């Protein structure tokens, strides 16, 4: 059990499995039956299985540019380097050439993550040994400082798609589990921080609906501002929903804003209230999307908080200028079958209300 949010570690696996569909492959199947005391162990097992699978297919290789003094020409001659060799009475050509290499950013990130998990005291010995057995396959790969990784610049192509899930796990490990102290040394933190867990929480819910409810459309959409004619959108922020559920006939739409906070309410005048900016945000999404659609469509919104151990949890249904705004929590500390039931209930309500509308029209 993870203490700060009361999340079952097994549920972290389920969240990852939906967020990254590769975890549904056979070699990961038995992970869901294992018991993990620390999340570090969960990441170690997932990464170990994934890297072992990737090694069977071969590590990704990319062309890198090398500069070397050679006795025979290779690639192109670097004039400045060759002249320098001549002045130093070295009978060598300074050449620059491209070579396929495993020493690229993809494998560097994996090697760095493997070493960090091996050093982590919360990873069990048997799991460390599994990771150590993979280490020799990365002898020709350099390590990289976690703070030097530019995650947004990593480009996935057809020949490296298998790395998407592996690097996603590495991202959670290197950015969420590692902190740097004043001396510059890295050590493991106790848990993923709030920001990164929020991203996983959002992606999990979206991918759950995509995988389990083919009877609806589940997407993360951008909503245009309902501006007056001739008005420019200059400097207006992008309205990007976390999850948008729509019935197949598009008659009903539910915009879900997934929130993962340490505290799900705010204090105003000694009273617990819903975070005002969350409510303003989802209401703005609903009204601007409604303005784009014709009158026979129903748009509603929902704030779906991950439940905390705080005694005050937001819950309620509010009707605002003809739109329904729901606020509720999802308890990630319960068995996943209960979480599944709660998520299915949200979808079923959307579909049932659609059936009621259709019966009324008939």
TrEMBL record:
Organism: Butyrivibrio proteoclasticus (strain ATCC 51982 / DSM 14932 / B316)
Name by which UniProt lists this protein: McrBC restriction endonuclease system protein McrC
Single GO term (MF): endonuclease activity
Keywords: Endonuclease, Hydrolase, Nuclease, Plasmid
InterPro entries xref list: McrC
Keyword Nuclease among record annotations: yes
Pfam family, one: McrBC
Domain of life of the source: Bacteria
């Amino acid at each position: 059990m993870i203490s700060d949010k009361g999340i079952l570690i097994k549920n972290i696996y389920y969240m990852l499995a939906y967020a990254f569909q590769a975890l549904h492959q056979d070699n990961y199947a038995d992970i869901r039956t294992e018991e993990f005391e620390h999340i570090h162990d969960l990441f170690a097992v997932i990464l170990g299985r994934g890297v072992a699978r990737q090694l069977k297919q071969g590590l990704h290789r990319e062309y890198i540019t090398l500069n070397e003094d050679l006795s025979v020409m290779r690639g192109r001659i670097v004039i400045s380097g060759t002249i320098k060799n001549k002045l130093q009475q070295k009978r060598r050509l300074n050449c620059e050439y491209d070579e396929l290499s495993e020493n690229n950013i993809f494998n560097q990130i994996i090697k760095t993550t493997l070493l960090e998990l091996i050093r982590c005291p919360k990873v069990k010995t048997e799991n460390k040994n599994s990771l150590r057995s993979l280490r020799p396959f990365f002898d020709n790969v350099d390590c990289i400082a976690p703070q030097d990784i530019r995650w947004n610049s990593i480009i996935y192509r057809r020949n490296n798609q298998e790395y998407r899930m592996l690097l996603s796990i590495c991202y959670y490990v290197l950015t969420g589990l590692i902190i740097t102290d004043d001396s510059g040394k890295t050590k493991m933190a106790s848990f993923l921080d709030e920001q990164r867990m929020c991203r996983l929480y959002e992606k999990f819910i979206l991918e759950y609906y995509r995988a389990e409810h083919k009877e609806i459309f589940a997407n993360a959409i951008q909503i245009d501002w309902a501006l007056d004619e001739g008005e420019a959108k200059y400097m207006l922020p992008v309205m990007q929903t976390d999850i948008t559920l729509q019935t197949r006939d598009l008659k009903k739409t539910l915009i879900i804003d997934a929130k993962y906070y340490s505290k799900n309410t705010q204090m105003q005048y000694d009273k617990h209230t819903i975070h005002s900016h969350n409510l303003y945000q989802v209401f703005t999404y609903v009204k601007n999307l409604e303005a784009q659609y014709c009158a026979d469509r129903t748009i509603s919104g929902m704030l779906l908080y991950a439940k905390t151990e705080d005694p005050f949890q937001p819950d309620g249904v509010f009707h605002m200028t003809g739109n329904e705004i729901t606020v509720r929590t999802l308890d990630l500390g319960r068995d996943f079958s209960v979480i599944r039931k709660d998520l299915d209930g949200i979808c079923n309500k959307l579909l049932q209300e659609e059936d009621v509308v259709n019966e009324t029209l008939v």
